[in-house]
Write a structure and sequence with these properties.
Oligomer: single chain
Largest sheet: 3 strands, antiparallel
Distance between the termini: 50 Å
Strand content: 15-25%
Order of helices and strands: EEHEHEHEH
Number of domains: 2
Number of helices: 4
Structural class: alpha+beta
């Protein structure tokens, strides 16, 4: 099978698959190759680079830096989003420090005003809160300072 990049007389670009070069020529001469966008049968092949055996490994190797760059960009975007969540919590919730577990339980049980809080809790305190149905979630870590990054 051969894949051709094709264009019609109205400059619409599309692809077509043919058993051979002569199959394209034969079908084109009989008006069987038509533009899927406008129906024109005045279709011609575009200039294409040949597909050469053995180039897939080279292309894969060449794409690795681009993949690494895309992955690094996605990671940076995720870190930025986590930083925004942390900033939102710090700007809009009450910091209750190391009394977090006691305060979260009091809010859950209706003994304290309902509000957003954050603070510190031990692993045991967090487990106990979760077992008792008190909704808790870890705060995203602080992003590293620019002076600490390589």
């Amino acid at each position: 099978m051969i894949r051709y990049a094709l264009t019609c007389d109205r400059e619409h670009e599309f692809e077509g698959w043919f058993a051979s070069s002569t199959a394209f020529d034969d079908q084109g001469a009989r008006g069987l190759v038509a533009c899927p966008m406008c129906g024109s049968t005045a279709v011609r092949k575009q200039i294409m680079s040949p597909s050469v055996a053995g180039t897939k490994k080279k292309a894969a190797a060449e794409s690795r830096p681009a993949q690494a760059q895309a992955q690094a960009q996605a990671q940076a975007m995720m870190m930025e989003a986590l930083g925004q969540v942390r900033r939102h919590v710090e700007e809009n919730f009450d910091d209750v420090g190391d009394t977090f577990a006691r305060e979260a339980r009091a809010i859950h049980e209706g003994r304290a005003e309902e509000r957003g809080i954050y603070g510190q809790a031990t692993a045991k305190e967090v487990r106990d809160l979760a077992e008792d149905g008190v909704p808790v979630s870890p705060l995203p870590p602080e992003p590293p300072k620019k002076t600490q990054v390589n």
